[in-house]
Automatic annotation (TrEMBL):
Record-linked Gene3D superfamilies: Luciferase-like domain (3.20.20.30)
Name of the protein in its database record: LLM class flavin-dependent oxidoreductase
UniProt cross-references to InterPro entries, sorted A to Z: Bact_Lucif_Oxidored, Luciferase-like_dom, Luciferase-like_sf
Annotated Gene Ontology cellular component terms: cytosol
Record GO terms (molecular function): oxidoreductase activity, acting on paired donors, with incorporation or reduction of molecular oxygen
Domain Luciferase-like: 9-251
Length: 341
């Protein structure tokens, strides 16, 4: 059995060819898609976070709105760039969203990837300390967030407060108990996957990974997952770790599906550089009739290793079409793969 959700980047463009032409469209359609996905029986609604882009950016108002309109589905991010984040304010916002959702938040975070502007985090008021890189800063922000989410007081109370304080040191409020155990780390390298395991974070692995061995993407990703689980066991955590992978998977059910994805040309891995030093491998997409799709997916070692699969959706094609995309996988592919009864 496997949890199956969707991952949306929340793109919008004023083009007449897009069904998502404004930021308001992207936000409101994201809520509608999450509600519809829950009705279909999907397990998760996840959203990518990008800054300085016509995509979803500030996740917590959206997550809170979805939490208020749904009852069961997991609500998450994949991922929040921690270079941009104030960990204490983030703990407050995440706590509020999680309480509204009744403890369903699955918060995916990461050190971030190349963005639309150069060193965008500087405009948000952050700068690495002397001798640090922006990646170091992201890891530091993460460690502060994890510490705050433990719920222990650390701030000295005012002896003459405006309102009465509880006894002892104070913490950011609202606090949501259990959220610390629902933090995921988006790892592009094997080393950061192992680091995440030692800190007790779940693992998110996307369709992009550092090319560390030259092997096919799904094999490298499967090895990363195994290294993560071994590190989790070695760290002595008593909880069961979770691992998600994301994929572009389309069951070709009709002529519209075939027109959109039948000849996508993305049926093989690609290698490129995401910056001057980092060689990356990009995983293939899957698009075929259900029987062929099932045969292809059975060869993907990383999907087999993961307990959660996130389907990346083409959100600019509109809510109705994306409901069809998700439903096709849940109904015609997942049962044959053993992901659904």
């Amino acid at each position: 059995m496997k949890k199956i959700g969707f991952l949306s980047f929340g793109h919008w463009t004023p083009s007449s060819h897009s069904a998502t032409r404004s930021a308001a469209d992207a936000l409101l359609q994201s809520i509608d898609l999450a509600v519809a996905a829950e009705e279909l029986g999907a397990d998760g609604a996840y959203f990518r976070v990008h800054h300085f882009a016509r995509q979803l950016a500030s996740p917590f108002p959206l997550l809170a709105a979805i939490g208020a309109k749904t009852q069961r589905i997991e609500i998450g991010t994949g991922v929040i760039d921690m270079r941009y984040e104030n960990p204490l304010y983030m703990a407050e916002s995440a706590g509020a969203a999680d309480l509204i959702a009744g403890g369903r938040l699955q918060l995916g975070i990461s050190r971030g990837s190349p963005e639309q502007v150069i060193d965008g985090w500087r405009y948000f008021g952050y700068q690495p300390a002397e001798g640090q890189t922006d990646a170091d800063m992201a890891l530091q922000h993460t460690e502060v967030l994890l510490d705050v989410l433990r719920g222990e007081g650390f701030a000295k109370p005012n002896p003459q407060p405006m309102f009465p304080n509880p006894p002892g040191m104070l913490r950011p409020e609202p606090y949501s108990d259990g959220l610390r155990e629902r933090i995921w780390w988006g790892a592009s390298s094997d080393a950061t996957a192992v680091w995440a395991a030692t800190l007790g974070m779940h693992l998110q692995s996307s369709t992009l990974k550092n090319d560390e061995t030259g092997e096919p993407f799904h094999i490298q990703q499967a090895k990363q997952i195994r290294a993560y689980r071994a590190a989790w066991t070695q760290a002595g955590h008593t909880r069961t770790p979770r691992v998600s992978v994301s994929r572009s998977i389309f069951a070709l059910m009709n002529d519209r599906d075939r027109a959109y994805f039948g000849a996508s040309g993305d049926d093989s891995d690609k290698v490129g550089f995401i910056d001057d030093q980092t060689r990356a491998i990009f995983g293939r997409s899957y698009a075929a009739e259900p029987d062929k799709l099932i045969a292809q997916l059975k060869q993907d070692e990383a999907i087999a290793e993961a307990d959660t699969l996130l389907l990346t959706v083409p959100n600019q094609l509109g809510v109705e079409y994306n409901v069809h995309v998700i439903e096709s996988i849940l109904k015609y592919v997942a049962p044959e793969m053993g992901w659904r009864a």
